[in-house]
Design a protein that fits this description.
The complex is a heterotetramer, with 2 copies of chain A and 2 copies of chain B. Chain A is an alpha/beta fold. Chain A has a single domain (about 5-55, about 75-200, about 215-295), classed as Alpha-Beta Barrel (TIM Barrel). Chain A is built from 9 helices and 16 strands. Chain B is of the alpha/beta class. Chain B has helices at about 30-35, 75-80, 115-125, 150-155, 175-185, 200-210, 240-250; strands at about 5-15, 20-25, 40-45, 55, 60, 65-70, 85-95, 105-110, 135-140, 155-160, 170, 190-195, 215-220, 235-240, 250-255, 265. A 7-stranded antiparallel β-sheet of chain B has the order 4-3-7-1-2-6-5. A 7-stranded mixed β-sheet of chain B has the order 11-10-9-8-12-13-16, sandwiched between helices. The longest helix of chain B is centred in the last third of the chain and has 14 residues, at about 200-210. Chains A and C meet through strand 11, strand 13, helix 6 and helix 7 of A and strand 11, strand 13, helix 6 and helix 7 of C. Bound molecules: flavin-adenine dinucleotide (2 copies), flavin mononucleotide (FMN) (2 copies) and FE2/S2 (inorganic) cluster (FES) (2 copies). One FE2/S2 (inorganic) cluster binds near residues 229, 230 and 256 of chain B.
Chain lengths: ~300, ~270, ~300, ~270
């Protein structure tokens, strides 16, 4: 009997639960020569905005212990160029695509949702309410429960697509936000986006990033992301797309076990573009070894120590 | 797109100066695919570094690819400790290339420090034209003048300038460049500048190129996480091309050095 | 002309600004053979409670990428044993001592403050309102502004010693807490305590830590701690004792530059007990090289990039 | 307190079995100070690991200290790749020691896997009493039986048991222990048990020690961050000593293996 790796996020069916995270895989074409695109459950696009954005000045990235800071500032060519120039490649190559959307106002989010809902080849929307690197919008919606509720309610009305809200980890009680996401009718919740951090050039006594602060990602944050995924899994019933520092099959397993239905690989793509394929193979191997035949048996299978 | 991710073995590793090393890796693929100006991302397995480090292809001999690096920080310092037979993780070749010179063109190659290796590979690739190449090496001092003999061995004319005068002209390499342009004023429309080195040098070289209306290609550096064009971390500000202008509805944009560069037309760059 | 490294935290003068963090240096005596105790600005004691506590069952610690999780659970012999058995050694050896106090109720904090204020050899109190590993008290006071204000106000009334409040990083707006600390009359603020994280044994599908979650410390969190230190420096005028992942002279410099008056070394003591002495020497060297003669010139010297 | 932190050079490194290695480091200090049962924290410079790893002192010859380890996870796997001449960061010697046997005592040494190295150093340190030592080695299979010949060379009696019967007795090493106690029932009050190995083995050995009223010392393992007694991470639950009872006002406490152990009286441990 075969192993079933396919999972369901709202209406969206993924052939396997291993996706690549927004901003960390371009629009897939860039990676075709180094990654096996056919092995990826879904590609989440770089964050899209209504109008083209050129992003922040260099330096935008810094390496940190087992992690990196980025302050890209959502550089992208805008949703229209995405639909016209990037989506066709993804469609032709049968790559399941989730569009990551970013507004500075609620209206922008609404328009993005509308335009992408009409575009052929978009499987779901991931609403980024947690980008720490832009002046307006972004994280504001992700750290204020009221703003979060309003923006998601309004987007929900504009799209019939599977709607995933991406949470910021920079909050005291993430469960509160997860419950809002569920309450307004989103199909799934994804977490975590990056943690706000900072690095200093000690000789110049200036921030290394021109933007001063940036978002921390990579293996360094994994224990934090696993804990938040576990907490959100206690709080809501909608599926969780878990991410943050996944760097190996074992890391991916941690997220499933604490409650993720699917996972996303971010920073690790930069130095190991083959990781998603490795994880797909590794999950299958793990399930076989542990006499399981469906990845859903792993989701939330954490057993708490008796005391 | 023809880059690959490979684990390769170090086939040779030699110190060639104070802090300068040449490491050779065995990779038929890389040896065959690499073009002058391109680079690789090179990662040390199990080291406490997240990203690979970018190094230009310096030379190719048979199946061996050589990188020339200077010890700057943690990555290059750990690399310098690696022994023959140990492994490196390589993604490459990456980025665009210096333009193939037309047979009648005369090349002015202006380089400093670890900007010289890609220029060497450029010169070697078109070695049949070496007599039409003038190499200008700028350095802080004598100890940082590298590859002088290697360029001569290719048949290029070579000049050196140092800040402290300990080798060649005392002064900036751009003085050498200006002089070379003056000396070749009769064939000015055949001149082509290619430069790689620290940003102030590239900025000055670009300015000369613009002023003298000589096509100028510069190879730039920024921190790189992926080298593949997906993190959008490695950007420099540039003027938009006409198509970009229309698409982006603005005049300036940020250009990724790892895939749209590292070689850029000097006049495109907006120096921040 | 000499270099001045001494700093002032409230009434407490430290001969240099390099302290060792609570829970990461025992009571100093344990480290005498491997560290140079005479080089340390102050030793912050392991978290003290009113009654002895045996802490949580093993496993209590896990290594993570560039970090570690701990769920010690405040094992300590209680404040009385500290005063009787540990303090004399510290006093005899002229080691400036800061006592780290932990209560499950406000009353416990008050009693701890009283007893330690009467003890000879205690230079200051660091109030831990941010321990993530105990059932009652601890972090509750650090993530709820009201509780934070009340506990600190009451402790302030009980002690004339320099009072330092140690903040939790697990909050949305740390500035809010820093302002409370300043408002109730604390002399200094210290940050960060650990970030709540979790690790899973994927073969057993159980949490590795018996306590399920633990606190993340070490180089992994440094960019986050630097950013919080910078933010708190914008918000308050009282001195900051900065910490989180300091592993080298350069790391320490980052904290001073963004606004710390003194720093604390935690996790790094475990694998490099000589680090504090190395940092003291390194600071001096840095000041010399940059033509500065007082460490206070470094504090908050960050220059923002013009845009 | 006499531990030190040192950077030492690897002086020898040999594979001695499937996954088992012996690494020698040159350190006069460590060689001179180490006592049987003690261990060191060993850290690989620049590796992507935070903590050192604990290894028992296995042997001392002149100024060289030897550690015997099995490749288990990332740390030991990286260690196994280190070459002679490379550096390790060592803190040690750490922890308490096995008791010095009285001249008329008879030692029953029960070990499994990487629990054997400290028992070997124990036996070697008191080699003049080797004829009064019986070593019982328990292992999963033949491949995991180590140090059998080395113990014999010291003059100890050696017996082996394996789970699969591929060497020695098929069964548990505690069967050998029970038999040894029976065979020595006449000198039961002279017997002393010392054991190191996996927890289930130690638990069973301790139970036998308690039942037979034979003093039993076990050397235990827990994850260690510091090895110095300051992180309080490496604890096992134990009965309180009378003084502790009074001070802590309770019967049970958590005891740090790195400084109050790793060697504990078996009867003190509360198995969780
Ligand atoms: C396209 C390209 C080609 C290059 N070719 C060469 C070459 O042939 N030989 C050579 O010696 N060097 C070359 N460099 C520079 C080389 O990548 C850096 O010197 C090297 O990354 C420094 O790494 P480190 O770990 O020693 O320094 P660290 O300071 O420890 O590095 C910290 C971080 O900063 C980044 N960084 C530091 N300096 C630079 C820099 N100058 N450029 C880009 N990133 C930097 C590193 O990638 C790393 O992420 C090239 C850079 C680029 C972008
Ligand atoms: C006092 C003491 C003495 C020891 N002596 C020896 C010896 O002589 N030879 C030998 O081969 N091993 C010995 N060990 C066990 C050895 O420390 C572990 O096997 C080793 O830490 C595993 O590291 P790793 O990186 O390969 O495994 P990983 O699984 O990658 O390690 C991850 C983490 O878990 C910890 N860990 C994993 N297994 C153990 C374990 N069994 N005990 C303690 N911590 C563990 C590691 O320290 C590390 O922090 C000893 C342990 C202790 C506490
Ligand atoms: C360079 C970079 C760019 C990113 N851009 C986006 C983005 O546009 N939209 C978004 O929702 N998240 C973005 N992220 C966050 C990632 O999608 C992911 O949530 C985060 O990096 C944590 O996962 P990781 O640790 O595996 O990288 C970006 C991350 C990085 C490192
Ligand atoms: C093992 C361990 C025990 C700790 N115990 C305490 C404690 O008792 N009281 C306290 O305020 N902080 C405690 N901390 C937090 C540290 O003092 C420090 O705030 C934190 O570890 C961040 O610094 P670092 O990254 O340098 O370790 C502990 C940290 C560790 C790792
Ligand atoms: S290095 Fe990632 S886009 Fe250039
Ligand atoms: S390992 Fe830190 S107290 Fe034992």
């Amino acid at each position: 009997m075969g192993i079933n790796l396919s999972v369901q996020l709202g209406k969206l069916k993924l052939k396997n639960p291993v996706t690549v995270a927004s901003g960390c895989f371009g629009y897939a074409q860039e990676m075709e020569s180094v990654a096996d695109l056919s092995q990826i459950g879904a590609v989440i696009s770089k964050g899209l905005t209504l109008e083209p954005r050129i992003g922040n000045p260099s330096p935008r990235i810094v390496e940190t212990p087992s992690g990196m800071l980025n302050a890209i500032g959502l550089q992208n060519d805008g949703v229209d160029v995405f639909i016209k120039k990037k989506l066709p490649y993804l469609k032709e190559n049968n790559i399941q695509t989730i569009a990551n959307i970013n507004g500075s106002t609620i209206e922008e989010y609404e328009q993005l949702a509308e335009r992408l809902s009409g575009a052929d080849g978009v499987g779901a929307l991931e609403v980024n309410i947690s980008c720490p690197n832009v002046k307006h919008g972004g994280i504001e919606f992700g750290v204020d429960p009221k703003a979060c509720e309003e923006v998601l309610t309004r987007i929900r009305k504009k799209t019939g697509l599977t709607l995933i809200a991406k949470l910021s980890p920079n909050v005291t009680h993430i469960q509160e936000f997860a419950k809002i996401v569920e309450g307004v009718g989103c199909d799934a919740v994804s977490l975590v986006n990056t943690y706000v951090g900072m690095a200093v050039d000690v000789n110049k006594r200036k921030p290394i990033l021109t933007n001063i602060t940036g978002g921390l990602s990579g293996p360094a944050i994994r224990p934090l992301a696993v804990r938040l995924t576990w907490q959100v899994a206690q709080a809501v019933k909608i599926p969780i797309l878990g991410m943050g520092g996944i760097n190996s099959v074992q890391d991916a397993l941690e997220f499933f076990i604490v409650g993720a239905t699917a996972i996303s690989i971010g920073t690790a793509n930069f130095y190991n573009p083959k990781l998603s394929a490795e994880i797909v193979a590794g999950l299958e191997e793990y399930l076989l070894k542990h006499n399981l035949n469906d990845i859903s048996q792993l989701t939330g299978s954490l057993e708490l120590n008796k005391k | 797109m023809s880059q690959q991710q490979q684990t390769v073995l170090i086939s040779s590793h030699t110190q060639i100066g104070e802090g300068y090393y040449v490491v050779g890796v065995a990779s038929p693929w890389l040896a065959q695919a690499s073009q002058p100006g391109q680079f690789v991302m090179c990662r040390l397995p199990n080291a406490n570094l997240l990203w690979g480090r970018a190094f230009s292809v310096y030379d190719v001999v048979g199946d061996e690819v050589f990188l020339l690096y200077k010890v700057m920080g943690r990555g290059t310092s750990l690399l310098s400790e690696k022994k023959v037979g140990e492994q490196l993780e390589i993604i490459g070749p990456l980025g665009n290339t210096f333009s193939k010179p037309k047979p009648d063109q005369f090349l002015l190659l202006v380089g400093g420090g670890v900007g010289l290796p890609p220029l060497y590979f450029y010169a070697k690739t078109y070695q049949e034209q070496a007599s039409q190449m003038r190499v200008m090496i700028g350095a802080r001092d004598k100890e940082n003048v590298i590859l002088e003999e290697e360029f001569k061995a290719l048949g290029c004319q070579v000049e050196v300038s140092t800040d402290d005068g300990s080798a060649g002209l005392k002064g900036l390499v751009t003085e050498l460049l200006k002089k070379a342009i003056r000396n070749n004023s009769k064939i000015k429309d055949k001149l082509l500048i290619a430069s790689c080195g620290p940003n102030p040098m590239l900025k000055a070289v670009s300015a000369i190129g613009i002023e003298e209306k000589i096509p100028t290609e510069i190879s730039m550096e920024e921190s790189m996480a992926c080298g593949l064009g997906v993190c959008i971390g490695c950007v420099v500000k540039t003027h938009c091309s006409p198509e970009q202008k229309e698409e982006l509805k603005r005049d300036e944009t940020y250009t990724r050095l790892c895939c749209e560069g590292p070689v850029l037309e000097g006049s495109r760059v907006i120096w921040e």
